[in-house]
Amino acid sequence: MRSAGFDVSFQDVSSTAPYRQKYGVPENLQSCHTAIVNGYSIEGHVPAADIQRLIKSAAKGKGLAVPGMPAGSPGMEGPRSDAYSVLLFQPDGKTSVFRSYPAK
C-alpha cells in the first residue's frame, strides 16, 4: 500500500470485529484485514489500484471487500492465482462487482 502512495498506519488489535461493526462491514464479507481509507471501509486483500479507483470515482458505497484470502490477491501471491472479485458494498449489505480478476 505504501508503494502505491498510501500513508499507512497499523494497529494490532486482539479482534477486528468491533472495527468491522463500527465501519459497517457485512458479516458475509469479513476477512482477515480491515482498513479505513478516505472514509471507505476496506476489507481483506483488496488491490491498491481498486482502492485508488474507488477514491477517484467517489463511488457511492460503504467500501470494498475481497472475502476470504484468494490465492493471487495482494499478499497472497504464489504459484497459482484463483479467480476472485472485489465487491463494492452498500450500507444495507448489498454488493456489486467492482472488479473481477481471472484465475492464472
Descriptive overview:
The protein has a five-stranded mixed sheet, covered by helices on one side. Helix content is 15%, strand content 25%. A hairpin with a 2-residue loop joins β1 and β2 (40-44). It has two helices and five strands; from the N terminus they run αββαβββ. It has helices at 17-22, 48-57, and strands at residues 34-37, 40-44, 63-66, 84-89, 95-101. The two termini are 23 Å apart. It has 104 residues and is α+β, with helices and mostly antiparallel strands. It has one domain. The mean pLDDT is 89.
How are the secondary structure elements laid out?
Elements: H1 17-22, E1 34-37, E2 40-44, H2 48-57, E3 63-66, E4 84-89, E5 95-101
Parallel strand pairs: 2-3
Antiparallel strand pairs: 1-2, 3-4, 4-5
Concise account of the structure shown:
The longest helix has 10 residues, at 48-57. This protein has one domain (2-101). With 104 residues, the protein is α+β, with helices and mostly antiparallel strands.
